[in-house]
Amino acid sequence: MSCLKLVRYRKSLTEVVNTAVHAAKFRGLFISFSIFALFGGIVGVSWYGALLVQSGAVKVGGLFSFILYTSFIAPPLPGLETSTANCNAPSAHQNDCLKSLPIR
Question: What is the CB-side half-sphere exposure of residue 44 using CA atoms within 13 A?
């Protein structure tokens, strides 16, 4: 009897760990993408701003102000992943509970 429980719990634990690893891969992918997009955006804006300064369309002070304001707005963006994960967590848990119920 205890051997049967051990096999059942080991199988359940393996499923939980596999699900957690699968979710962690997607979270890592989302964080990597958001960081890449953030720094890519900073480089893109700086490059385009440098072209505008070189052509005389924008003064250096205006570009510097824009980059400074953007640096205050940009850091909270990776925190959106945590908010998204917290919003999705209850629905995923409910799905797991529904899957564990026997179908009659």
Answer: 6
Q: Please report the beta strands in 6-71, taking only residues with DSSP state E, as ranges in sequence order.
A: none
- Assign 77 a pLDDT band (cuts: 50, 70, 90): low
Question: Which residue type does 3 have?
Answer: C
**Count of domains forming the chain:** 1
pLDDT band, very low/low/confident/very high, at 90 (cuts 50, 70, 90): low
**Nearest partner of 46 among 30, 69, 31, 67, judged by Cα:** 67
CA distances from 49 to 46, 55, 62, 91, 99 (A): 5, 10, 9, 44, 53
Distances (CA, A) of 37 to 11, 33, 63, 75, 84: 39, 6, 20, 12, 17
Domain ranges, residue 70: 2-100
Element (H, E) at 30: helix 2-55
Contacts with 70 (C-beta within 8 Å, 6 or more apart), sequence order: 42, 45
